[in-house]
Every structure is written in structure tokens, then in C-alpha cells.
Amino acid sequence: MSRRNEKNGCRRAAHFAAIHKAFGASNASKLLLQLLVSDRPEAALTISFYEAPARLQDPVYGCVSHIFALQQQILTLEAQ
Q1: Which of 24, 33, 64, 69 has a C-alpha 20 to 30 A away from that of 43?
Q2: Which residues, at least 6 apart from 56, have a Cβ–Cβ distance to it below 8 Å?
Q3: For residues 55 and 63, is the Cβ–Cβ distance under 8 A?
Q4: Residues in domain LOB (predicted)?
């Protein structure tokens, strides 16, 4: 295995660990199985890069808290 593949493997392992910790591997798999096969790769990336880390930071709201914060910034900027 080349060093490049080893680095990618470590990144994948870290993302899988975040998914496993946030949702559980079985639940993440069940979520993906409910989607069309063509939509699964994008959903897997979204879960691994956005949803799982956000859920670890904020277990109740997850990425919704980020969306809410951005909406508040927009409202503040529009009011100026």
C-alpha cells in the first residue's frame, strides 16, 4: 500500500469512527439503504463530512444548529 493510500485510509477510518460514534454503523447503513442507489454516495459523504461531526459537537441539534446560526447571521446582515 502506498503512503498516499495509507493517508486516505486513515482519513476514511476517522470518518467511519465519527459516523459510528454519532449514529452507530448499523443505523447509518439503514439510512443509506433507504435511498436510491444513485443517491447513496453523496449521502455517505454528507453524513461523514457534515452530519456526524456536527452531531458529535451538538448531540441534540447536530447540523441544524449550524443552519440556524447561519440564518441568524443572514437576518442580522439584512437588518444592517
Answers
A1: 69
A2: 18, 21, 22
A3: yes
A4: 1-80
Q: Fill in the amino acid letter for 37.
A: V
Give backbone dihedrals phi and psi of 45, rounded to 5 degrees, phi first.
-65, -40
pLDDT in tens, 14-64: 667 778 788 887 888 888 899 999 998 898 888 888 888 888 888 889 889
Task: Output the 3-class SS for 24-71.
Answer: CHHHHHHHHHCCCHHHHHHHHHHHHHHHHHHHHHCCCCCHHHHHHHHH
Cβ neighbours of 33 (radius 10 Å): 9
Residue recorded with cell 440556524: 68
The ranges assigned to domains in the chain are: 3-79
Q: Three cell numbers at 52?
A: 456526524
pTM exceeding the 0.70 threshold for the entire prediction: no
